[in-house]
Specification:
Elements (H helix, E strand, L loop, with lengths): L4 H18 L11 H11 L3 H24 L13 H14 L7 H26 L12 H10 L1 H34 L1
Helix pairs in contact: 1-3, 2-3, 2-4, 2-7, 3-4, 4-5, 5-6, 5-7
């Protein structure tokens, strides 16, 4: 993707929309565009510093918005919390997965969506289990039963994450394909 003024504005708009979408009240848990955005950025943006910046900036903006809402008593979800940096590291990893997605291959896009969401689910919930803080701030047992309970409780998040990632990847990669095709027609004419 060539970085020009229109591209920069498109990416800024994408970050803002994704950030705002993530804080919509009563949105199904895990149903957010950030994993798809990380995969898309890793696949499409040639300058890798921008490919990492896109999803991280979206996460940071939405976390900051959550924090403002939390401080003002409008949500029970804090924007910033201890250990949050791990989510950012996991999103860097998801962006790297995007490097291996061929932007024109539907099977690569779906495969990347499944790999990205699954690795995020496995890593983030393993770290939740390790941290000792479980649902309702009650600790998970440091046993096989405790880790199974941790993953089981997180299954709705995982399923919503898969649905969201496939949907938003379809939108992002589909729009990119349509725009690229349109631009190619215009350059021929």
């Amino acid at each position: 993707m060539k970085i020009n003024k229109n591209t920069v504005w498109s990416l800024v708009l994408l970050v803002v929309i994704a950030s705002l979408y993530r804080i919509i009240p009563n949105r199904p848990t895990g149903f957010a565009p950030q994993i798809a955005m990380a995969l898309f950025a890793g696949s499409i943006i040639k300058d890798k510093k921008y490919s990492f910046l896109l999803p991280l900036l979206s996460m940071f903006i939405s976390d900051a918005l959550y924090e403002v809402l939390y401080i003002n008593g409008l949500t029970q979800i804090a924007g910033f919390y201890s250990g949050q940096y791990i989510n950012y590291i996991l999103f860097v990893g998801i962006t790297v997965i995007g490097f291996f997605i061929k932007k024109t291959s539907i099977s690569h896009i779906i495969g990347g969506s499944l790999v990205g969401t699954t690795l995020y689910f496995l890593a983030s919930n393993f770290l939740v289990w390790l941290s000792g803080t479980g649902i309702n701030n009650l600790p998970y047992a440091k046993s096989w039963a405790g880790i199974i309970e941790c993953y089981t409780v997180a299954l709705p998040f995982y399923l919503n994450s898969i649905y969201a990632t496939v949907l938003f990847c379809t939108i992002l990669f589909g729009a990119y394909a349509l725009i690229t095709k349109q631009l190619a027609k215009q350059s021929i004419a």
